[in-house]
Each structure stands twice: as structure tokens, then as C-alpha cells.
Write a structure and sequence with these properties.
This protein folds into 2 domains: about 1-75, 3-Layer(aba) Sandwich (Glutaredoxin); about 90-195, Glutathione S-transferase Yfyf (Class Pi), Chain A, domain 2 (Up-down Bundle). Helix content is about 55%, strand content about 5%. It has 8 helices and 4 strands. It has helices at about 10-20, 40-45, 65-75, 90-115, 125-145, 155-170, 180-190, 195-200, and strands at about 1-5, 30, 55, 65. The two termini are about 30 Å apart.
């Protein structure tokens, strides 16, 4: 398998952690892809016409995207019933958490793009506040439900860990832990020192 990859991407990180937890990371070749909305990577665009990371080429030559599809493929095809149960409430909980965390990441990445790629005179505080509010509401829900997140990795909790890691990476000054102590304790106990999480930490 070949994974179009960039180390800072939290969506790539989600795929890599899933592969590590499944014990198949060594079967995935990483292909560096430097891509932005204004300057898409040409090779990536062949694999994914949206030119967004990540994209996975399977051993059969099929292209898969986005991260949620790739993670479900890895879990389904490589014995990952613990990461994604086949049916029942646990499956829907894992998928719901993944969707919530991915939505947090979408909002956070858009905030990052606003600062990194848009000239200051064209930035919108109202738009940024709207994206910030999405993240805040999601954090509130996760803090409320932290006791039910459990201590075993699923596609849902992996996605949540990656979302929190991205907030630490790009928005450290906003300190999500201050108002979300239950979530902070869950993250510290289950993810802060987990080998797959540490091995995929984005570069400083």
C-alpha cells in the first residue's frame, strides 16, 4: 500500500495511528506530498482529484480517500474489529466520535489556513470565531462524555486524540485543557504517552 503523506496533517496522523494499532504500518509506503489549496501536489491529484491528504493506493491499485474511508478500509480488511466493531452500538459510537473529531479538525484546519495563507487585511474575525465555536462545542461534548470514551483505541478515540493533538500543535496558546478537565485527564491517561501517538507527533 502507498499513502500520500505529510507529517503535519492530523488526518494523515489518524491513518498512521490506525495502521500502527493494527500492526500493519510497515506495509504502507509513505509518499511525501506537499499540497495546499492554492498549490495542489500533482501526483496527489492523480490519486485523489480533490488533491487533499491523505490518499491511499491499495495493493490492488485502488485509490481511497479521505481519512475516514481509509481508516475504515484498514480496520475492515486487516482484522481491526477492535478499532471498528462490525455492528451494534459500539460501531455507531466509534463512527460518531470519528465524525465529531473530523469536524473539529475541519474547523481547526480552516482557521489555520486563514492565518497562514490569507493576507491579514482579508481575514474575517467573524468567520474565525464561527470556526472556533464549532471546536469549543465539540470539546464541551467530549468533556461531558469523557468517562465513556474508554481506554482502548477505536477509530473514534483515535480521531479524538488526533484532534486534540492538532489543537496542541497549532493552537497551543488557547489551552483546551483549561475548561475541559475530564477530557484532559482522559487524554493524559490514554494517549499522551501511547507509542503510536508519540511516533506520529508532528514536527515542531
Amino acid at each position: 500500500m502507498k499513502l500520500f503523506y505529510a507529517a503535519p496533517s492530523p488526518f494523515v496522523r489518524k491513518v498512521l495511528i490506525s495502521a500502527m494499532e493494527l500492526g500493519i504500518a510497515d506495509r504502507i509506503e509513505r509518499i511525501d506530498a506537499a499540497t495546499t489549496p492554492m498549490a495542489p501536489d500533482a501526483a496527489l491529484a492523480v490519486a485523489n482529484p480533490l488533491a487533499k491528504l491523505p490518499a491511499l493506493m491499495t495493493d490492488e491499485g485502488e485509490a481511497l480517500y479521505d481519512s475516514s474511508v481509509i481508516c475504515e478500509y484498514l480496520a475492515t480488511e486487516h482484522g481491526g474489529s477492535a478499532l471498528l466493531p462490525a455492528s451494534g452500538p459500539e460501531r455507531w459510537t466509534a463512527l460518531r466520535l470519528q465524525s465529531l473529531a473530523d469536524g473539529m479538525l475541519d474547523a481547526a484546519v480552516l482557521r489555520r489556513y486563514e492565518v497562514a495563507m490569507r493576507p491579514e487585511e482579508h481575514r474575517s474575525k467573524e468567520w474565525d470565531d464561527g470556526q472556533r465555536l464549532k471546536v469549543a462545542r465539540a470539546l464541551d461534548v467530549l468533556d461531558r462524555d469523557a468517562a465513556s470514551l474508554g481506554d482502548s483505541p477505536t477509530l473514534g478515540t483515535i480521531a479524538v486524540a488526533c484532534a486534540l493533538g492538532y489543537l496542541d500543535f497549532r493552537f497551543a496558546s488557547e489551552d483546551w485543557r483549561a475548561n475541559h478537565p475530564n477530557l484532559a485527564r482522559w487524554h493524559e491517561a490514554n494517549w499522551a504517552a501511547r507509542p503510536s501517538f508519540m511516533a506520529t507527533k508532528p514536527p515542531a
